[in-house]
Amino acid sequence: MNKFIENGSENQFNRTPYYVDPIRLSTHFQQIDFSRFGHFSEQPEEDVLVEDEVDTGSGEVAHLLVYNDDHNSFDWVIECFMEILQHTNQQAEQLALLIHLKGKATVKTAPRNVLQPKKEALVDRGLSAVIEGERI
Q1: In Å, what is the CA distance from 97 to each residue of 8, 27, 55, 88, 107?
Q2: Which of 54, 67, 96, 101 is the most exposed place for a label (fewest CB within 10 A)?
């Protein structure tokens, strides 16, 4: 364990009191259980955390994507997802974290005509949302 010299000018490793050991920090983060946030891959593709709705002939299946921004708080984004998309608190938190870490995420998959009013409601609340068609 690091012990600082009483005068505070240096410790036994000749470091300032604010030094953060990267190896100890890495070990600390390896011990944290991130499983409640779902799986994160290194690839820049977005993850889908919700079940696909079946298209019953009411429009082509599409994806509602939300992009990261520097304006909206996590709490606001989570509230929007719960109210507009009817996601659970856990789903909304996971999606907000994915958007923050990856830059975007698919937040809903449904027929395009179902997604359109949801997209407009998200945009009206200041979120950056778009609808993309099914990728084949």
Answers
A1: 39, 22, 28, 14, 12
A2: 54
